[in-house]
Amino acid sequence: MQLEMLPVLHIVVIAYFVLYALAYSIPYHFAPTQAFLREDLHLEKPEFGPQSSLEAWIREEENIALDRLLRNIAPGGSNTEDAVPGTVIASPSKTHPDYYYQCEQPLVKPLHPTQVLTASGIRDAAITMRTLVDLYASDPTSYLSTKLVPLLEAYAAQSHALQHEPNPSGTFSDLSGLGEPKFLVSGHAFTGSWGRPQRDGPALRALTLAAYLRAYNATHPLQWHRAASGAAPNPFADLYAPELPARSVIKADLEYVGRVWRDPGFDLWEEVRGLHFFTAMVQRRALRDGAALAAAFGDGGAARWYAGQAVALDAFVQRFWDDAKGHLVATLESSRSGLDCGVLLGAIHGTADDAVDDMFAPWSDEVLVSLLALVRDQRQRFPINAVPSAPVTEDGKFDQLAGVGIGRYPEDQYDGYGVSPAGGNPWFLCTASVSEILYRSASHITATKILNVTSTGLPFWSALLQNDDLSEGTLYRSGDEEYAKALQRLESVGDAFLAVVRKHTDGEGALSEQFDRVTGYERGALDLTWSYGAFLQAVKARKTLKADDQ
Ligand code: NOJ
Ligand code: NOJ
Predict the structure, then answer these.
(1) CA of 271 to the centre of ligand 1 (A)
(2) Distance from the alpha carbon of residue 181 to the mean position of ligand 2, in angstroms
(3) What are phi and psi of 92, to 5 degrees?
(4) Which residue's C-alpha comes closest to atom 11 of ligand 1?
(5) Burial of 395 (C-beta count, 10 Å sphere; 0-12/13-18/19+)
(6) What is the Cα–Cα distance from 64 to 42, expressed in whole angstroms?
(7) Is 482 helix (H, G, I), strand (E, B) or coil?
(8) Does a cis peptide bond (omega within 30 degrees of 0) precede residue 391?
(9) Cβ of 144 below 6 Å from ligand 1
């Protein structure tokens, strides 16, 4: 009996050893950077409960958001098995919402089940990778940064591949293909019907990669210097090189943006064809950054042309201010109200962190009154907003800026799974964008030491300061009581909107796309990468503000 068992035992032992060996070799080849990161972020036991302070929750959620964001990036992200390196999936959700057949228009041909989409990859990916570039730039030698560099490198390489992939928007040879918003995670074109082209993607990608180049250069200055002086081959040639026709990723994107910004395309919500504030704002910033980059690479002609197009965009973006409505509109000549979280996002992604004064910056009067108008609309639109976080202030006044859930725009019908008449819901990324605008405004006022209440900004400042007698032309300076109150309110109102995000976050700290207008529960695409990015960016703006306070 025992002897008969022996061969079996041998097989078992051998199999065991094979498995053991494999267990060691698999992680070695495939990715486990993020497993280490998970440990490093101390994610094993969330310590926040309903009683913890907002501060404690933010600290915890920051780690969770970063971890979950990284899970959606290849190589290494646990949700990205089928994806080629450098892919950022918009969400791991494959069914309900079905990112295959999601929109009203049925797809031309069904996709093979393994061809999971990176829904709307270019915009979401660029915004996501920008969050990582900024983290890298803040401390290039940190442990985290050493883990981020391979992801950033893969993203740069995959950007080059996607630019060259022929697709329904066009091809690389005339650059028309750069307007394609979405690809399969295999890196192949998505051929279903969709709102295309979308002309914000190349601008956002150029901004992200240019920021990476700058950050990388900050730690390797010699390479840049030698390349720019022509003394050595340009080590960044894949990212930026003066040649035309453009073969480097950033230059191709900048050429595209410089040529097409006057042409209509689909908006960031992929629904409306036209000319859009968000798109124009990120195009303007890309061309400005691009001009500086071109100059640094000795590409003087391009630098002048990009700068010239950016100036033309300065004039163009002014058309989005609607004097009669008293706010910025998302799309020109649209039948919609124009109130739109895309306006806030345009200000956020269209304005450099270190911008001093800029048209339609987050702290500009036009953006702040647009924010107020959107908040007012959304408060009365969604049942869950009927009981805002803090309806009444200390002195008993109704707070028009009490934290509420913010959706995309008033007319929205997309409920996260399909379209229905009153379908819209609040979105995490839109709610977080309100906080970011307010924190960045507070930082701006701290830096300038002045608060100037103009006729345009009056409605916002009256609401913020809860002072109906405030008049235009009022000037508050650092040291004034009202100046201090404005700063304190910008921060606490920003926190109130983050508290709304917190309230609807699930027990694991996961963020989907939307939260239900009636029940408040999460809905739409699970683990939406952009939700995490928007939250992290708001938190970053909050930290900057807190550091200024010191
Ligand atoms: C998917 C798009 O991404 C989303 O923005 C849109 O609202 C829905 N389709 C419905 O058209
Ligand atoms: C729908 C959103 O409307 C769009 O902006 C986004 O790019 C995609 N979902 C993917 O997250």
Answers:
(1) 6
(2) 10
(3) -75, 0
(4) 103
(5) exposed
(6) 9
(7) helix
(8) no
(9) no
